[in-house]
Task: structure prediction
Amino acid sequence: MIEVTASTVQDIALMSQSERLKGRPKICSDCGLCLSSYRPLMPETCAFVKNQTREIEQRLHGRNRKSGDELLFGVYRGMYATRLRQPRPGAQWSGMITTLGARLLELGLVEGVITTRAAPGTRYAPLPFLACTPEEVLASAGNKPCISPNLSVMDEVRERGIKRLAFIGASCHVHALRAAEAELSLEKLYVIGIPCTDNVAYPDLLRFLRVVSASPDTVVHHEFMTDYRIWLRHEDGHVEKVNYVDLPMGELDDVFPDSCLACFDYVNSLTDVTIGYMGAPMGWQWLFVRTEIGEELFRLIEPDLEFTDFFERGSRQKSNEDLIRILAMTNRKRTPLPIRKLIAFMQRRSGPAGLEFARSVIEMKLLRNLRHIRTKFPRHEARVIPYFVYSALEAYAPVYEKTFDQPLSQ
Result:
C-alpha cells in the first residue's frame, strides 16, 4: 500500500479517469478505502463486489424497504421540503450540510468531520480532509461533482484517536463505511449524505463544462435542475440555462465511470440524513431523516429551517417506457433542433414535476444502469444489483421484456 498524504490525495484529485483507476477492479469508484489501512476489508465492504444494502438496512432500521416510495427513496422516518432561512455564502444550495457539520463540532458532539474542499487552484476537484473546527467545515461549502477518495481519511481518524466522527459523502462511500462500521472502533458516527449520480474525474468535468457552457472558465456552480435544464451560475452572478435535450451526449459518452453506471443508490439511502433537492419545489431542498441518529441531526438544525409543501404533477410511466426503447437503440442520431425545442417546452409544461420528477429520474437511472450491467458486466448482476431494484421497476417489466427479449427480474 502506498503512503497516502495530503499531496498524494491532491494528485489523485487531478488525475484523469484512466490514470486513477488503472489496475483497479473492473468497477471502482475510488472511494478511498483501498488507499487506507482498511484495504483488506474491501472484498466485504465494496458495493461493487458485494452489495449489502439489504443487510445494512436491517441493521440500521430493523427492516427493509416497504412498497411504494421507499423502493425508490430508501427507508426513511421523515421527508421534508426545507432550506436554511439564512443561506450560507458559497453554498451550492442554502448550506444545510456544512451547517450541520459545523454545529456538531461547535457543540462538541464530534471531534472531527470528514468532508471535501476544493484542491488548491481549482473550483471542483475534491480534496477530502478531516475538519476539526467549524470554520474548516464552513469553508468547504460548495459542490464538487467528481469522484473522490473520501474514505482515505479514515487512517487519520484512527491515528488522531478520534472516537466521535461525522462523515459527509456519496453512496459508494457510505456503503463501504457502513459495511466496515464495526471495525472502526468509533463511539459515535453521524453519516450525512448527498444524493449522487454520474460523477466524473476532474479533467472530464472540465471537458463537460467546455462542451455545455458558453463560458466554462467562469462557471461557479452548476446543477441539473427540476425544470429539465442545467443551470450554470457564473462569477458575475448570471445563470446560463441549457435544456437537457440539448446536451450533446455523443460527445460525452465516455466521461462517466463504470462505477456510476453500476450504482443503484442515487438517494444515498444508508445515511442518517440525506440532503439533496430533486423532489422539492424549485429553490428548496429535499431532506430525509432515516435513523434515530438522523432525528438527532434534524433537531440540531430544525430551528434554522423554513419549510414548504411537496407537490407532484404528471406521470413518469410513458417517458421511462420510451427510455427503455431508446436504451435498445444503437448509433442514435441527435434530434434536430426544432424538435428538441418542442420536447423541452413540453417537458416543462406537462412533464413529471415535484416528487413525480424525482421518481422519474430515479427510475431512469435504475433502468439505464441495469442495462449497463447486463451489457458490460453480466456476471456481476447478482452481486452488484441490490434487492429492491427489480420490485421498483416492476411496472416496466412488459415493455422491458418485449424490447430486450429478456425478463426484467433476474
Q: What stands out?
A: The first helix runs from residue 6 to 13. The chain has a mean pLDDT of 95.
